[in-house]
User: Fold these one by one.
Assistant:
Number 1:
Amino acid sequence: MATSTAASYKALVFDQTGEPLDVLQLKDMPPAPAELKEGEVELKFLQSSINPSDVNTVQGKYPISPKLPGAVPGHEGVAEVVRTGPKVDRLSPGDWVVPMAPSQGTWRSGGVFAAAGWHPVPKDIGLVAASTLIINPPSALAMLEIFHPLQPGDTVAQNGATSAVGEAVIQIAKARGIRTINVIRDRPDMEATVARLKGLGADLVTTEENLKDDLAASGLPAPMLGLNCVGGSAASAVSRILKDGGTLVTYGGMSMQQVTAPTAAMIFKDISFRGFWLSGRWAAAQGPAGRAASLDAIVQLYREGKLVPPQVQAFPLTSWKAAFEALAQPHRGKKVVLDCTA
Amino acid sequence: MATSTAASYKALVFDQTGEPLDVLQLKDMPPAPAELKEGEVELKFLQSSINPSDVNTVQGKYPISPKLPGAVPGHEGVAEVVRTGPKVDRLSPGDWVVPMAPSQGTWRSGGVFAAAGWHPVPKDIGLVAASTLIINPPSALAMLEIFHPLQPGDTVAQNGATSAVGEAVIQIAKARGIRTINVIRDRPDMEATVARLKGLGADLVTTEENLKDDLAASGLPAPMLGLNCVGGSAASAVSRILKDGGTLVTYGGMSMQQVTAPTAAMIFKDISFRGFWLSGRWAAAQGPAGRAASLDAIVQLYREGKLVPPQVQAFPLTSWKAAFEALAQPHRGKKVVLDCTA
């Protein structure tokens, strides 16, 4: 236990849903109490990420919502423990922690929280890995595990392979000997993108149009598991190469086009079309211990050099508007994060 | 053992795929041998049904196909045992039998088969129940069992509720205390159709357009299981009323329109879109003993008066062309069967 080191903290707050630039305000929060209660920790935030689900939360388009008014958004980030209240054995001042569950409000410089909601991570994985740890890599890990038991040599196919989850899928699959069939949009820097994904461990990188031919030429076996974050024809392309009994798992819909589930594929090829949401049934099924184990598995991959942190562009919390202006630029290629110490 | 009672049998035969009226021919088959081999039975067919999958088989559009040339179509029917070869203990002359597996060729007056491929049924269920036993009722039974564990009081929703499977679903669900939400097309004889389905045990009968309001007004709980044999908007209507974690199971595509699997429903409501095919993974998973048990369960429902046989229109095998001409009439409402004794 120690006394608070900060007179007060700042937080991005919204009182009603809307576009982030319209409804967010950076506000001074009430000072942390002199004495923490049982099970509480005071956290100083280091870096917090901005994910699509955060923007949707502020817009009121996400199923999990913080209580209005005075809501602080931010599902993901890394904080340092400043002091601990009575009966907090698991955490010590100076520890880095990440959220165990979404919607705790990470877009702030600090605050007081229930210790049970936070999980320690070692500092040697670095600030970027830690501040982007709890959503994309565990989503990739879970999708590779829960739908089909994949063995080394098996394949997984995905569209949107340059997305943060997509790149995590490539790396985690590679670490397990699972081979990846990656579909990306045709783009001006196609060669460089293919080279980058292959550098991460991708076995095949192709476009929707060339998928079938390139897969045949590659000699890779057809996958049981397909991952879709695009929808429309990009989803159909992946579903069409699945082995009988396979599953197309949708975790995003970047094209805003729905997925078609062809009747004959469902009936005669036994293809299933399912969804994945890290905060949905999966979270309920794995429970806190399972959640902690999956975060530790991601940390381990970082420590072994088998996961590379995403590229980020950081903005001081006090310059938060510039962060959301940057987000609005198309084809950024870098994840936007908030430096909560500035 | 006994000698053959028929000098020879006739069968509908096709040598190449195409429209049934173009490619089928009624032919005399070689006479049954004087001595049957071990495990063989000679069967005299009584009545065989014509299902959409039979027509698709003749057209070459079905995944299971008999060997050409000289193929005899017909997946379903009932036959009487004429005589048994050595080591056939399970069947006796005079027994009625139905196929254990599809594609044995039931559109014939008789022939010699492996006894293991046939399952005895009691005669008191009647010719119509027996000749339509192995496809639609077991499909309804399996779909009610394998996707979600339904309890008495739970609901199941389905479109195409006047189809043969749909009517079996209503009756089997009723026998188990499971309540049915049935979607049918608007039609001139709407009131009579609603009354008929309610007579079979339907709890709610409505149209795609009124489904949501009528379900709310009924006080019935939302279903975990939806059954779809239509596709398009009729599939979407059923998928939209499913409870979180529910499954839309497609077993047909009568509208020829594909199923849309909405991204948000898959991700945030954990709705799955799957297919069912009686001869697919399900058949492999249940094996012959499971298959026999499910046929016996259907027989039991008939004996208890909990299943009513479908309405049929019978044509003599020798007048088979009239049967296919009748099939081409829209909105028949009766299943077409072949009287194989005439």
Note: The radius of gyration of chain A is 21 Å.
Number 2:
Amino acid sequence: MTTFKLTLEYDGTNYHGWQVQPGMTTIQGTLQEAMTRIVGKDVHVMGAGRTDAGVHALGQVASLRADFHHPPDTLRRALTSSLPPDIVVTAVEAMDDEFHAQHSAHWKRYRYTLLTRRYPSALECRYSLFVPYPLDRDAMIEAGGSLIGTHDFSTFQAAHGSAESPVRTVFAVEFRQQGDHLVFEIMADGFLRHMIRIIVGTLLDVGRGRIGPEDFKAIHDGQDRNLASKTISPHGLCLLEVSYQPFDVHREQTQTPCAMVCS
Amino acid sequence: MTTFKLTLEYDGTNYHGWQVQPGMTTIQGTLQEAMTRIVGKDVHVMGAGRTDAGVHALGQVASLRADFHHPPDTLRRALTSSLPPDIVVTAVEAMDDEFHAQHSAHWKRYRYTLLTRRYPSALECRYSLFVPYPLDRDAMIEAGGSLIGTHDFSTFQAAHGSAESPVRTVFAVEFRQQGDHLVFEIMADGFLRHMIRIIVGTLLDVGRGRIGPEDFKAIHDGQDRNLASKTISPHGLCLLEVSYQPFDVHREQTQTPCAMVCS
């Protein structure tokens, strides 16, 4: 048996999220079926993060153990031809047996994409949230900065979230204006259920002046889901990267806690 | 009755092309139904070009005549909220009565997007053609240059194409390398059925060395569909722009007949 690390892209639109659920088409279930077809035995595929229904990934990581004695890239090609076009395995590596996609991960990076122009986009309607109203970006950046550090994120957790502890460490938050897109990126050691979607929903209320940046911090400190704004749509969210290196090793020169990056 | 010009974006994946067909969901049919709901009468919507099933648009133009006495932007907003998210009206203008989306057009610009890397893309599988083999870009550029000018394009017309004349004028052809994408753009006074998909299919055979650039010109001159390569998938194709100005007015400084533009 060899332990493999898979790196994955997927369009989550047509899936009921990552995790296997009876009678539902999920990313994990689709991958497990493809692996079983390839190796002829049941294979359990473990994901680094359980993305919700409709959430996409450009850099999800999964691990599995299987009897496969060809080069790892042969498994990559076999999986890609066996999977539907909206799930792509971009890399396969053989790992030490102790590698575990979820437990070995140090941090993850997610992106939420807002489309800020007068009219929605037909070609991007699956990948960004259309925001037709003007946004005060400076206020959003100021509010976003207060997320950084080790905090109780109960305010930004789904009411039915079931994490043992609501404490997470956010290493960095970035805003980036790319043409008509305002992109929000967040790097943390882990995320509570719906955490990013509730954070961005609340930041949007900061951006439109309903909440002041200083109120955002008070809402966060209140540790009460009812204080925050609604959970926004999953389709603007994408898991970009799962890192197996400590954050400060990877990104030594983070200068500002929350900045607008122009690109 | 006022004549309106609509500018449109659409994701063609879920439509049987532009043109109304009985029992099929089409872009034209969906637009006409939305207009009818808004003005309470049957409205005929005329497109600048009849895109095939699966082809997208970022700048399709349509014209219609209707009794609508509010500002044109009110019609844009009414249409956008009435249409499904994969069809977006980006602009509405009131025009002189002689304006006709198809007959008044001087030229159109289409883009075909190739994804040239080792593995396909899950998030772009609806918008680009995956090309896993290496391409000789210089040979493709040389061959593409021979398309420019006024020619009989019978070689690059669907076998069941029904155009009165196979003669078209190609004003410009461009290749652009954008990260992992090789983008082909073509501007012409009109296009025969499947013309761009057959041209790009044949250029791909030039790129992989099956056809020399000089053979490409001979194939074109042969005026026989059987000489060209197969019609490639519609999903990499997108109608970018319909222009109502003569080409040389719009783009005075076209330097090279067919060039690689780096961006």
Note: The interface with chain A takes residues 8-11, 56-58, 76, 80, 85-90, 119-123, 125, 127, 238 of chain B (CB under 8 Å).
Number 3:
Amino acid sequence: MTVTAPQGFRASGVTAGLKPSGKPDVALVVNDGPSDVAAAVFTTNRCKANPVLWSEQVMRSRRARAVVLNSGGANCYTGPQGFQTTHASAELVADKLTIGAGEVVVCSTGLIGEQLESDKLSAGIAAAAEWLSADGGPAAAEAIMTTDTRSKQAVRSGEGWTLGGMAKGAGMLAPALATMLVVLTTDAAVDADTADRALREACRLTFDRLDSDGCMSTNDTVLLMCSGASGVTPDEATFTELVRDLCHDLAQQLLGDAEGADHDITIEVVNAASEQDALDVGRAIARSNLFKCAVFGKDPNWGRILASAGTTNAEFEPGELDVAFNGVWVCRGGEPGEPREKVDLTGRAVSVTVDLKAGGESATIWTNDLTNAYVHENSAYST
Amino acid sequence: MTVTAPQGFRASGVTAGLKPSGKPDVALVVNDGPSDVAAAVFTTNRCKANPVLWSEQVMRSRRARAVVLNSGGANCYTGPQGFQTTHASAELVADKLTIGAGEVVVCSTGLIGEQLESDKLSAGIAAAAEWLSADGGPAAAEAIMTTDTRSKQAVRSGEGWTLGGMAKGAGMLAPALATMLVVLTTDAAVDADTADRALREACRLTFDRLDSDGCMSTNDTVLLMCSGASGVTPDEATFTELVRDLCHDLAQQLLGDAEGADHDITIEVVNAASEQDALDVGRAIARSNLFKCAVFGKDPNWGRILASAGTTNAEFEPGELDVAFNGVWVCRGGEPGEPREKVDLTGRAVSVTVDLKAGGESATIWTNDLTNAYVHENSAYST
């Protein structure tokens, strides 16, 4: 039941006709309280979609009663008319729920640069309000899918409180958030500061370390709504850890469903002088098309890993680097190590370890391989 | 006759057997003087190949008498044994030509992480020295090819002096040089300072603005050798302009032969607050896999261009950006402009113009689309 697993939430997912496929495309999640504490993290892309511009304003109060989400159109680069559509959506939700428009977060996903059909959207929102229910979580999760092949949901239980979540995103997954909409709900009674800190820490270690194709979206939003309906206030460390754990689960579901990918690649950079150094090296590797093509070809091409590491300013000596594929150290001290024939890359999961021998810090980045299917899907998406 | 077009140069290209295909793989270019002035630019990758480590030392004197180049192996990440192979190559060339090893630049290209077969290389160098001739330029240009489908050569004539050049490179083309070996020769009588300034300026505006796949090589070398045999000393502006023009020609040949590419894309960023801003935006676009896939799909997806621009710190207002594909302004003021149906992307040449409306500076970046053929070629290259 995901976002409706915690007490105090209702949700729905309906078909408004925004998607040519006729699949569900409008979702609504409502927090019935008693608390309306919320926290959100948005894309750091400077070219933000209209719903992000709107929702950033809403979230200044750190309170939200509802979130309305649509697939079938990102409402991005659609100017004042597009902003008007977003605003009208929030007003309509507010009207149906007898709350204020300033309490309604709006999220959109789909093609950018085209106006949403506001009549269809309005009708969809009205229907979504009618269909709200305490077991509407799965329907909502389905309605936010775009090129996703399956809906992404997760639930975690604390002591006397629950955390639920749904996510969408299958391409444009990159740091500073993936193309991704995530709604988390909890019935824990937490204050706005705690919710904000927990969400930021969770994002930093999970969604921000997904780098599927290096492309940063314009619509990314991660929203956490807290109803307080359980009456339980967990200690902050416990709360933060459960939020992080649930975000990790959703992030891995996103990675596993990335557009056209054959392999899920975990890049662990160890013995770095700083966490930032480890991240820089991990990201440089995750963004190398040559490396990603090699993994698609089941080729443990460690030379392309060193060539990527060499583009960073991280502290290391090129002649000291070790690299392993799936635990086989094919590069030792910047030279050929164990025979590459010992590496088997036929499975979906690929692990790459890079030892910088420059300190005690480490970081993990998750990415995918670059495949013919990725090229196909992204050359045909808007046509 | 390219590198042997100017007076004072001999060259050759032979088959040493380093390439499984049995095609030519060792080239030698010799400057018979009277001058031995030279300038070079190397990859800025910190993980440099052995020939680059050697050649950087050679070029400290800003003089060179010969360059020996091999395809069939990059001699990169091959440790002390690999460096020994490079050193022995230079010694052998020096021995054959009765010059010093410190006057011999060495370049290698091919797969990284594997030792070169030094016996074959030595035999090849001996043969190349035998075959040196004043019309050996084309043979040399052919011997440095890897995945190139054709050799790249160009010649320019000054008043009483000549400039020739050859290049190889078809993948891993990225800023701070492409995977690319370039040898330029001239019989102009220029001093080392002039040669160095002219070469750096030319590289900055040509090779450094190629960004085929965002991957920076470990072996990139651009070498300019000046024999002074014409006895003519052109003024520096004229000399610099001709070097730039010839480098532009070679860069466009590299772009046109990029691995698996269907389209050559020129990204011009205009009305930027600074040249660096224009470059940052241009590079961000050139590195967006989603944009590159869209061009492959003949889709003028300007949303992906704005999304890329939004990841930079360049000065601009997102709501003011204009974007054109092949002269059709599909985005005006951050919103849909002329109908995308007016854009025809069936030809190989695609031009993208982004107007930042933030100043008077501009810059051009050249890239390619991302295709199934690119993925295929780079997933199969080493296997």
Note: The radius of gyration of chain A is 21 Å.
Number 4:
Amino acid sequence: MAGSNAVDKAARYQQRMQRQKQVVDAAIARAGQEKGLLLILTGNGKGKSSSAFGMAARALGHSMRVGVAQFIKGRSDTGEEVFFRQHAEVTWHVLGEGFTWDTQNLEHDSETARKGWSIVQTMLRDAAYDLVIIDELTYPLKFGWLDMELVLNDLRQRPLMQHVVITGRGAPDLLCEAADTVTEMRDIKHAFRSGITAQKGIDL
Amino acid sequence: MAGSNAVDKAARYQQRMQRQKQVVDAAIARAGQEKGLLLILTGNGKGKSSSAFGMAARALGHSMRVGVAQFIKGRSDTGEEVFFRQHAEVTWHVLGEGFTWDTQNLEHDSETARKGWSIVQTMLRDAAYDLVIIDELTYPLKFGWLDMELVLNDLRQRPLMQHVVITGRGAPDLLCEAADTVTEMRDIKHAFRSGITAQKGIDL
């Protein structure tokens, strides 16, 4: 009996693996179009920006050129910035100098955001950039510092093969509608809340 | 009236920003403990592995040493692997050679997984690794190729300051219970389903 159970188990296992392979093969067959993608990484969970920077690493492995624009974070001591600035194929802009929620002035913040966007525009108009990461763009949009139509228009008119990754909580619906891929990072359990400080190499 | 509306708007904006700052400050004050974290990146959405590799970049920016172990993926042409193998501070192991769902043999897959885990163990016992990424570990666990108790035990006994990031769909409950941080990547919209092929620098 034990032997026959083992045979059954192996057979069920093989069936399950075959079904899984069929599903994957069918999806690959359907997918055949090549174009630059617009990806949104949103939600309250960890991993939005780090996922974007992982794609930067992936792109660099394919000898692609990467542009990064970070809104909000005026700091320049993050591990990712130190690391990627060492790579000639990466252009890195910190655009949020002076606006975080410590800056309580709408006009000033709007002007900072608009100046920042003009730098993003130069990358969205330059086909030399294979991948453009716009980190934490959702905040300037949410707070009304940037005009959504302007942003959508620049994204639409970018070079055909250019990938763009946008990160930040609460991505506006209009932005998600324009995107090819939207992932929500959901915070199931978070170390920060349970009294553990932000950690180098993980959060910073 | 228009002027007074603008004043109201600015005042409401300032109030909102002040509330947001209070929330952030309080969270920072609560958080004060330093230790190596166990992070799980799970869910069906894009960005689990790329997020782990973004943390690798972040860690390298802090001159930390990174170990990567990839289960399942027997391929060696991914952008992330090409890129990170160029960096001396990174040790990269592909452990899934020969098991994907193309391999329809339970015993063979289990043995491959156990051999792979023994390599992960060497990193989990070596405090020289500041960050260990175990990519797509959930599959060997889900398919019963690896013993959960063995895995949990090795994770528990790792060096105090070592961070571990585990990725993969359907992370088992026992693993999530052991983790400090669990993020679920939810697939809200996916380019692959709408007929666009996997793209270099984004998916590969």
Note: Chain B touches chain A through 84 residues (CB under 8 Å).
